[in-house]
Design goal:
There is one protein chain. The protein has 465 residues and is an alpha+beta fold. The chain is 46% helix and 9% strand. The strands form 2 sheets. A 5-stranded mixed beta sheet has the order 1-2-3-5-4. Helix 9 runs antiparallel to helix 10. The longest helix has 24 residues.
Length: 465
């Protein structure tokens, strides 16, 4: 394979250039949802007895306005017919039961986007939900999105990277909960009476990831005086090209959570562990994707070369300096990658200029991936606490722990009579502080990173606030 194949459009459903979001009913639906959202409590209910609360009739009118708008939009999306019927029923039941904690399990089970992955296929989604890295409350959100599923990606998923639940998606329009840093649509964020036995899809907005990457990377490259290959300069000017890289990265990363020698439940985010364990897991998945991209580039996939630069630049420039420093596990992974490359002389910060040895970068990056994989493989034979300390040793070999860290002093400094989950309380919120390099970079990129809130493919991605 030597070129991007032309995508095949779905034969049914809204796949034309005209967005569902251009229909007048979308404006009505969006307005109804935005009217309801401020009335909701953290759990999604509405306390009609609270001071300043609307009366039940006012809320019901907005619910009916939303149901009517969904009914007008539904014919444009025949592939979502079962979901939209269940959605209208869930909305009306919520109203009939007095606007308590929402339960949208029926409509969640009816929404099955992974069963029909067709490039350009649109979906209208309405759920009471929190948005990861966005709104923490389970308020109603409405989103119009498109599927990203070109032929070349579909073939890779079918033949090499089986991931039947993964959905690459892009924004058409959205309500306030997505005017944030959130770049995912996950079923586990939705308000339901009980979680399904298993989730059947997961969506990642590659357009937001790509737009954010372009803006932050462009600013970092200019700031650091980094020389990059001419074709990667062109990549930073091409939103669609970056989206292709990110959807490939996301698909391989996502499946890696359940592949390999794993000493634990791959969905360990549900467990109580030190945050460097999450950081290593996310980095392992990214570096595995990077390793696969090296192979794919050799086979002629242009998206794979782009993906390697996306992984390195996003991990080095955006992750370490984005978000708060409290248990920032993605930031920790980025710091570790930079420190590893720096220790092995692939990255040099000299004369206030960043230099990267592009020839050696793939080999050394894969070397770090190998060290993490060995940690995992050895961890299968270790008790949990011993494994945590081994992981701490790996990270602290390249990143200096906080001077006040108890964990840095070793097992003798901890009360080992307590269960492992209690020892997590002894982990400092910022166990591995930023290096002086990253402290300076964070100050320089602060405004640029803040400007990426709510960014989409339609934003001026090279501009900064």
């Amino acid at each position: 394979m030597t070129e991007i194949l032309s995508p095949v459009r779905a034969q049914d459903g809204a796949t034309s250039g005209d967005s569902v979001a251009a229909h007048p009913a979308w404006s009505a639906l969006k307005d109804a949802i935005e009217t309801i959202r401020p009335w909701q409590s953290k759990d999604g209910s509405i306390d009609l007895a609270a001071e300043g609360a609307p009366d039940a009739g006012t809320v019901r009118r907005e619910v009916e306005r939303a149901v009517t708008a969904i009914g007008e939009l539904a014919p444009l999306l025949p592939h979502n017919a079962d979901y939209h019927r269940a959605l209208a029923a869930d909305l009306r039941r919520w109203a009939d039961e007095g606007f308590g904690v929402p339960d949208f399990l029926d409509s969640l089970l009816a929404f099955q986007p992974a069963r029909q992955r067709a490039d350009g296929l649109q979906h209208l989604v309405v759920f009471p939900m929190y948005t990861q890295n966005g709104n923490p409350d389970r308020n109603f959100e409405a989103v119009v999105l498109r599927m990203v599923w070109p032929d070349w990606l579909a073939e890779l998923e079918r033949t090499r990277y089986d991931n039947p639940l993964f959905c690459g998606i892009t924004f058409e329009d959205f309500t306030a909960g997505y005017d944030t840093n959130s770049a995912v649509l996950f079923p586990e964020t939705i308000a339901v009476r009980q979680a399904p036995e298993r989730f059947s899809w997961g969506g990642i907005f590659c357009d937001r990831e790509a737009a954010r990457f372009r803006r932050v990377t462009s600013a970092a490259v200019d700031l650091l005086g980094l020389e990059i290959p001419a074709d990667i300069h062109a990549m930073l000017d091409d939103q669609d090209r970056c989206q292709q890289a990110f959807v490939l990265w996301d698909m391989i990363h996502d499946r890696t959570h359940s592949h390999g020698d794993l000493p634990f439940d791959p969905f360990m985010i549900k467990q109580r562990q030190p945050f460097w364990m999450y950081g290593l897991e996310e980095l392992r998945c990214d570096l595995t994707a990077f390793k696969e991209a090296v192979k794919l580039e050799a086979e002629g996939y242009p998206q794979a070369r782009d993906m390697q630069f996306a992984v390195i630049f996003d991990r080095l420039f955006r992750f370490p300096v984005t978000g708060e420093r409290v248990r920032n596990y993605d930031g920790l992974g980025g710091q570790l990658l930079f420190a590893y490359l720096h220790r092995h002389d692939v990255v040099r910060w000299t004369d206030n200029t960043l230099h990267i040895d592009w020839e050696r970068a793939p080999k050394v990056t894969n070397q770090l991936c190998g060290e993490i994989e060995k940690l995992y493989r050895d961890g299968i034979d270790r008790p949990k606490l011993v494994h945590w300390f081994a992981a701490y040793d790996l990270v602290s070999a390249y990143l200096a722990p906080h001077p006040g860290s108890v964990w840095a002093k070793g097992p003798d400094a901890l009360d080992l009579d307590q269960p492992p989950r209690k020892l997590v309380d002894d982990v400092l919120p910022d166990e591995f502080p930023l290096s002086m390099f990253y402290e300076a970079l964070a100050k320089k990129l602060r405004r640029v990173i803040a400007s990426t809130k709510g960014i989409t493919a339609h934003s001026d991605t090279r501009a900064a606030a």
